[in-house]
Amino acid sequence: MLQIIKIEWLKVKNYRTFWVFIVLSLLSVLAPNFIVHDIFVRRIPKDAQKLLGASVYDFPMVWQTVASIGSYTSGIFGLLLITLVTNEFTYRTHRQNIIDGWERRDFVLSKLFWVVSLALVAFLTSLVTVLIFGGIYGNTPFSFENSQYLFYYLLQIIVMLLLALLLAMLVKRTGLAIILFVGYMMFLEQLLVFIVKRYFGNIGGLFPLQAGDELLPFPVLEKVEKLADANYKGPYENEVYLAVLVIYIVLIVWLVFRKMLRSDL
Questions:
Q1: Biggest alpha carbon–alpha carbon distance for the chain
Q2: Does residue 47 carry a pLDDT above 60?
Q3: What parts of the sequence cross the membrane (predicted)?
Q4: How many Cα atoms within 13 Å fall on the side-chain side of residue 178?
Q5: Residue 95: what pLDDT?
Q6: What integer pLDDT is reported at residue 65 of this predicted model?
Q7: What is the DSSP string of the chain?
Q8: Most confident of 78-82, 135-139, 215-219
């Protein structure tokens, strides 16, 4: 595995597009929190802020705030993964790796390495964001309470990256894969969630990306929904969404291995 990691590093260390994507990915986690903070401090009346309770950047609420925002802005990590994977097919480097002695399983492992690496980068960036915003803009002492939301975010981004990986391996062309990925994230799944929730209830929250979103509601939204609707019951228990995310992870990894082991090079 160390040899695989070394080879993957050699592929990207001088690849300018990779580093541009990395910078944009980090900014996609950090920058939106400045916007949200500005909105809550300058544009929401103080009476409304009192109704909502503590600041969204006070501990322990800051964990949920940062994770929730990240769940909507971290799709760029998926675009980076698609670029890395489709480049293998475009430039036939996957074929060369296998000619040089890799097994097909090794190629899949090399891409799963990027899934894990990018997910950890997103997780650690979110952790730093929590510490920055909770420490600078929060008015309460540091607390690990609610830190589980960051781990929910980690699971969600792993599922998102695995979907990007599967799509890249199926399509093999960068432009088309990116269009399909963005279309699924921003339009198709949201439409399916809306339709299924409207006619079948909470089961609509069990789609791959939506399951993570259900675990990561923005802190004040549920409170507002309860105030607006006395009959509001909320989604399934968290354990249901966690189990669904784990099932998606196992299923997509199996599909990726199946695709690579059976397809023509």
A1: 67
A2: no
A3: 20-41, 61-85, 112-137, 149-171, 178-200, 240-257
A4: 13
A5: 73
A6: 92
A7: -HHHHHHHHHHHTT-HHHHHHHHHHHHHHHHHHHHHHHIIIIIS-HHHHHHH-S-TTSTTHHHHHHHHHHHHHTHHHHHHHHHHHHHHHHTTHHHHHHHTT--HHHHHHHHHHHHHHHHHHHHHHHHHHHHHHHHHT--S----TTTHHHHHHHHHHHHHHHHHHHHHHHH--HHHHHHHHHHIIIIIHHHHHHHHHHHHGGGGGGSHHHHHHHHS--HHHHHHHHHH-TT---SS-HHHHHHHHHHHHHHHHHHHHHHHHHS--
A8: 78-82
pLDDT band at residue 256, thresholds of 50, 70 and 90? very high
Overall pTM > 0.70: yes
Structure tokens, 262: 């059976």
